[in-house]
Amino acid sequence: MNYFLGISIPADIQRALYAVVEPMKDRWPLVSPKKYHVTVRFLGKSISSHTRALYQLSHLLQGWRQGLPTMVIGGSLGSFRGSVVYAPVAGFLPIEQVVNQAFGTPNARQTPHMTLVKGKQMAGWESLWTPRYDLPVPCISLFQSGQGGEYAEIDRYVFAA
Known about the structure:
By secondary structure, the protein is of the alpha+beta class. 21% of the residues lie in helices and 38% in strands. It has a single domain (2-158), classed as Cyclic phosphodiesterase (Cyclic Phosphodiesterase, Chain: A).
């Protein structure tokens, strides 16, 4: 099991993004649209070392006075090492900054993204793109991933906007 901070995606946007990659379902291992989320920060196999940071994140979001942050999902698809194809996320800086304030700056650059395809080396994704969706971000969720790639939201940190 792994833990990560993420942002849930509305069902209508999940379906629209899935429609972009669905024609490739015979060639690629597609991620179920019900699993679509934006990964904010990977936390690892345990959250016990992150308890203080999670409390700090909750406190920071309760004091948030800048209006609901937004993010933009979509555009030309990207890939990590050819085995993950993702929709890019933009406008993420305010969210990234508040997470960094609570957890510290990550050792490695973490690219905000939403995984659409995962599992093997793929070709042909370079020409795909999705429409852009401008989404409000009402909360950041703590997720736990389990067997079979299922995700469970175990806590929610709400922006007090």
